[in-house]
Structure formats: structure tokens, C-alpha cells
Design brief:
The protein is mainly α. It has helices spanning about 55, 60-70, 85-100, 110-115, 120-140, 145-155, 155-165; strands at about 5-10, 30, 40, 50. The chain has two domains: about 1-55, no CATH class; about 60-168, no CATH class. InterPro entries: LRR_dom_sf, LRR_N_plant-typ.
């Protein structure tokens, strides 16, 4: 309901989103699992405008942080009482993290997602993504002045830099 409060709904497509109705699975544009858990919202192409509440918008960041801190147990239903495969849990978190990368060109194709869910290629794709992230992080870590001062320490690099900056 807090999502609905932030949206302008000129055509009333969310009218049946009623807080008095206990089962949100009966609401329009809400997708539920066989266990009656909300697993998706289909809000596109309905003239809805507004902002997504920050708790929902920050969900990916939260899951990424939980993954980095190796606290994936926080994402598991308590009723399972540790009766689940931790490796599968790790994989099931990695796939959506790959799919929600900032740059669409870094996201896997749907066919790759299917393969990863079947157990093919996830480890390789995850490692490649982690390496690329580490490289981007290190590149952003240094300011341009730090990068320039590194060049002045090595005369051969300085000569190369001067040659590159010469007339073209």
C-alpha cells in the first residue's frame, strides 16, 4: 500500500489495492508464488507516475551488502530452520545481482540466466564481474593528480607520456 501512496494513478488501475484486503495476491498487477508470496509487480504501461519508495528502490543495494558481508541467512525464511543448500542460496543471490548491474551491457542475456540457473557458467560470469568491479574500483580510487605523480616517479613512463602528448 505504501507503494500506491507514492504513485499518481489517473486511470484507477490500482483501485483494488486495499489495505483491508488481507491477500495482496488478489490485487491487479501483483504476481504471487504458489505459496502466496508477492514476487513481482507489473506497473509498466499503465500511465502510473511517481517515485518508488526508497526501501524498495534500495533493495538491490541491501541484497548486495548482505551478500558482501556473507550474511545470506538473513534472506532465508526462518521456517526452513537451516534446511537449505547454502551453495544454492549463494547462486540464487548472485544471479539477480548480475541481472541488476548498473550498465545494461554488463547484464547477462536471458539465455545466459537460464544456463546459470541450470548450473552452467555462473561461477565464471560471477568471477568476471568481480574482477571488472575491482578494476573499476581501483581506477576510481586514484585522483588524476595521484595518477600523474605515479608517472613522474618512473622516467620511462614519463617519456612515453611526453611522446603521447606531442604533436600529432
Amino acid at each position: 500500500i505504501w507503494i500506491r501512496g507514492n504513485l499518481d494513478d489517473p486511470h484507477g488501475v490500482l483501485d483494488n489495492w486495499d489495505s483491508n484486503v488481507v491477500d495482496p495476491c488478489s490485487w491487479t498487477m501483483v504476481t504471487c508464488s504458489v505459496d502466496s508470496l508477492v514476487i513481482g509487480l507489473r506497473l509498466n504501461n499503465n500511465s502510473l507516475t511517481g517515485t518508488i519508495p526508497s526501501p524498495l528502490a534500495n533493495m538491490t543495494k541491501l541484497v548486495k551488502k548482505i551478500h558482501q558481508e556473507k550474511k545470506l541467512d538473513m534472506l532465508v525464511d526462518k521456517d526452513l530452520k537451516n534446511n537449505y543448500d547454502r551453495i544454492e542460496l549463494e547462486e540464487m543471490v548472485q544471479v539477480p545481482l548480475l541481472c541488476t548491474q548498473n550498465l545494461p551491457s554488463h547484464r547477462p542475456k536471458m539465455s545466459e540466466v537460464v544456463w546459470m540457473l541450470e548450473g552452467d557458467g555462473l561461477a565464471e560470469k560471477w568471477e568476471a564481474t568481480q574482477r571488472a568491479e575491482a578494476i573499476r574500483y581501483r581506477a576510481n580510487e586514484f585522483s588524476s593528480s595521484e595518477r600523474y605523480s605515479d608517472l613522474t616517479d618512473d622516467s620511462s613512463l614519463l617519456v612515453q607520456a611526453m611522446e603521447l602528448s606531442g604533436p600529432r
